């Protein structure tokens, strides 16, 4: 016989007595761990998407008018009414920091339908837009590239020729060399052409509408760094896009999980305190036997605390496994299917340790009270 | 023969002020090694009180107790527990077994706080259960044993630590006379093997098993007589 074996026998053989508290623990920790698993997965998914597609910066001219938004970023008040441009030399300034994707935007008409025509360095765009997949041949200067939606609406196919009417009334002819597969981003709506060519056609060789800085170009794509470099005449902003709202959601799920964790800990220590205090009263005669057999107060305390700690540990462990299982079922309900679950080993280890420490702390007072029972008192109750 | 247990002027009362009950008054008792002493007296005469005091389960209001030349009441709480474990085996009328431990586990229980290999614990406990006539019933829980069998388990548990002194409070009180005789025979054997036994009993028939009888009345020790076999 050892103290540890004694603890296990008292839990196992008196199963019925230990069951309610064990169930309480399991319930608490199942809730907690399902949330931990879900928020871990959500965070991981959000940050991996963010890492894959990144968050570009946008550099636009400063202006006072009411703005209109493009890709979640303010670009121009109304391009048709009053056009504001960036000086093209900003591109050189920005090149100190890394690659940039300068763009010039204008409106146009194809067969009577309005479209936004964007002049861009298409080779560079292809290089930095991981989500871009071409259908057709790589565009040469003079060729058009159509976003999926634009192609659908305008009836464009790779190889088809096209006459685009510019705001000035002149016609810009060319061939659609390729279309883009749908990305879910702003490019779906756009028609692209080589930047230099558009600048020449419009007679705006020295200006740009905005500059996109692809992710990973400046050290942290830090808005402030770029703003300081370029001065107050331009606006530097980050896209408030789907990725960042995903990250935000994951963040609030984390905070909620943290709160639930605190609640779980409070509830389980209360549970433990009450049951330890009660069971000590119920088991007075056993305490008497321990005294009579010459167990020291320290040994008796160890037995009582040990029982609580073992129950708490088992509760946390089973709760972790059930919680993980529950998270698996809840997954489609809270997020998209591409969330993948990973078993949070470190959280489980932390939880089991925390549960056992809590059991130790909340059992201290009842246990020491039990161990101090007057031996004769205890033994007369028998 | 040397003296194992010696008390000097032990007095004990319960309660406070007007409600104070004097349970024992100035008990001077000396028990030689290897004796089998019966504590006899009417109900309420203080037998159980004296037994708990002799076992260090309780402290007197006044007086001193030496066991094997140790001043028992001079020991601190932890030391007193160690002392009980090493020197004394208790047996009670109510058998006081742990209900969720088997006979074998109950006998091994006192060894849980000793540094003894589990194999050695088992070996010792099985031998003792065989000795008290419970071979083959080692793995029964207390409620699967008769009263007499439970009492035997309690006796085996009391001697598993090889204490020199056994204190028994009416160990036959809950048993029918046939089982009572069997338990008395077991104690007699333990006595012959060299244990010192102090036993409370109501049954004067059982005095034929003992070597001495001490008579208590109203908390006072009336007389101690030798009983020749
Ligand atoms: N915990 C207690 N509180 C108050 N009085 C007590 C307590 N324990 C015993 N007494 C009193 O002390 C006296 C001696 O009691 P004790 O139990 O020692 O008697 P006993 O000889 O063992 O009696 P019995 O043969 O009935 O077991 C009795 O008057 C009893 O009422
Ligand atoms: Mg009594």
Automatic annotation (TrEMBL), chain A:
<keyword id="KW-1003">Cell membrane</keyword>
<feature type="transmembrane region" description="Helical">
    <location>
        <begin position="343"/>
        <end position="365"/>
    </location>
</feature>
<feature type="transmembrane region" description="Helical">
    <location>
        <begin position="308"/>
        <end position="331"/>
    </location>
</feature>
<feature type="transmembrane region" description="Helical">
    <location>
        <begin position="21"/>
        <end position="39"/>
    </location>
</feature>
<keyword id="KW-0812">Transmembrane</keyword>
<comment type="similarity">
    <text>Belongs to the ABC-4 integral membrane protein family.</text>
</comment>
<feature type="domain" description="ABC3 transporter permease C-terminal">
    <location>
        <begin position="259"/>
        <end position="375"/>
    </location>
</feature>
<dbReference type="InterPro" id="IPR003838">
    <property type="entry name" value="ABC3_permease_C"/>
</dbReference>
<feature type="transmembrane region" description="Helical">
    <location>
        <begin position="256"/>
        <end position="277"/>
    </location>
</feature>
<dbReference type="Pfam" id="PF02687">
    <property type="entry name" value="FtsX"/>
</dbReference>
<keyword id="KW-0472">Membrane</keyword>
<protein>
    <submittedName>
        <fullName>ABC transporter permease</fullName>
    </submittedName>
</protein>
<dbReference type="InterPro" id="IPR050250">
    <property type="entry name" value="Macrolide_Exporter_MacB"/>
</dbReference>
<keyword id="KW-1133">Transmembrane helix</keyword>
């Amino acid at each position: 016989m050892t103290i540890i074996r004694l603890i296990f026998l008292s839990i196992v053989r008196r199963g019925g007595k230990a069951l309610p508290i064990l169930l309480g623990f399991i319930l608490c920790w199942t809730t907690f761990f399902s949330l931990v698993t879900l928020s871990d997965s959500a965070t991981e998914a959000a940050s991996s998407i963010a890492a894959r597609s990144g968050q570009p910066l946008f550099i636009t001219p400063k202006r006072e008018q009411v703005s209109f938004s493009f890709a979640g970023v303010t670009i121009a008040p109304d391009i048709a009414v009053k056009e504001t441009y960036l000086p093209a030399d900003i591109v050189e300034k920005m090149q100190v920091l890394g690659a940039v994707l300068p763009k010039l935007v204008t409106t146009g008409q194809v067969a009577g339908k309005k479209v936004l025509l964007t002049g861009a360095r298409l080779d560079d765009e292809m290089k930095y837009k991981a989500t871009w997949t071409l259908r057709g041949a790589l565009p040469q200067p003079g060729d058009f590239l159509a976003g999926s939606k634009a192609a659908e609406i305008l009836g464009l196919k790779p190889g088809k020729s096209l006459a685009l009417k510019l705001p000035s009334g002149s016609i810009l002819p060319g061939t659609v060399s390729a279309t883009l597969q749908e990305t879910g981003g702003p490019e779906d709506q756009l028609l692209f052409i080589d930047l230099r060519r558009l600048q020449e056609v419009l007679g705006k060789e020295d200006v740009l509408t905005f500059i996109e800085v692809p992710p990973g170009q400046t050290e942290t794509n830090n808005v402030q760094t770029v703003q300081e470099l370029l001065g107050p005449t331009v606006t530097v902003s980050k896209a408030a896009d789907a990725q960042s709202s995903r990250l935000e959601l994951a963040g609030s799920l984390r905070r909620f999980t943290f709160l639930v964790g605190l609640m779980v800990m409070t509830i389980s220590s209360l549970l433990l305190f009450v049951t330890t205090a009660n069971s000590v009263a119920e088991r007075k005669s056993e305490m008497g036997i321990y005294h009579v057999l010459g167990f020291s107060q320290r040994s008796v305390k160890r037995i009582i605390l040990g029982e609580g700690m073992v129950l708490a540990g088992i509760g946390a462990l089973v709760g972790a496994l059930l919680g993980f299982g529950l998270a698996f079922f809840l997954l489609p309900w809270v997020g998209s299917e591409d969330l993948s679950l990973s078993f949070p080993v470190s959280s489980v280890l932390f939880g089991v340790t925390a549960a056992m420490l809590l059991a130790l702390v909340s059992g201290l007072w009842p246990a020491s009270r039990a161990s101090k029972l007057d031996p004769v008192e205890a033994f007369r109750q028998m | 023969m040397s003296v194992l247990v010696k008390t000097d002027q032990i007095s004990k009362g319960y309660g406070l002020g007007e409600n104070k009950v004097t349970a024992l008054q100035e008990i001077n008792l000396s028990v030689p090694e290897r004796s089998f002493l019966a504590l006899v007296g009417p109900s309420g005469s203080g037998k159980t009180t004296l037994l708990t005091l002799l076992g260090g389960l309780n402290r007197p209001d006044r007086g001193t107790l030496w066991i094997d030349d140790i001043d028992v009441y001079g020991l601190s709480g932890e030391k007193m527990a160690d002392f009980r474990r090493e020197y004394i085996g208790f047996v009670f009328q109510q058998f006081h077994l742990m209900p969720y431990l088997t006979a074998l586990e109950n006998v091994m229980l006192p060894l849980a706080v000793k540094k003894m290999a589990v194999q050695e614990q088992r070996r010792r406990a099985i031998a003792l259960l065989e000795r008290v006539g419970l071979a083959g019933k080692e793995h029964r829980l207390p409620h699967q044993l008769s009263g007499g069998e439970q009492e035997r388990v309690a006796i085996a548990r009391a001697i598993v630590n090889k204490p020199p002194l056994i204190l028994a409070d009416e160990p036959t009180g809950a048993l029918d006379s046939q089982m009572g005789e069997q338990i008395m025979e077991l104690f007699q054997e333990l006595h012959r093997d060299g244990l010192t036994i102090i036993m409370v009993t109501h049954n004067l028939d059982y005095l034929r098993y003992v070597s001495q009888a001490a008579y208590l009345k109203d908390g006072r020790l009336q007389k101690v007589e030798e009983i020749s076999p």
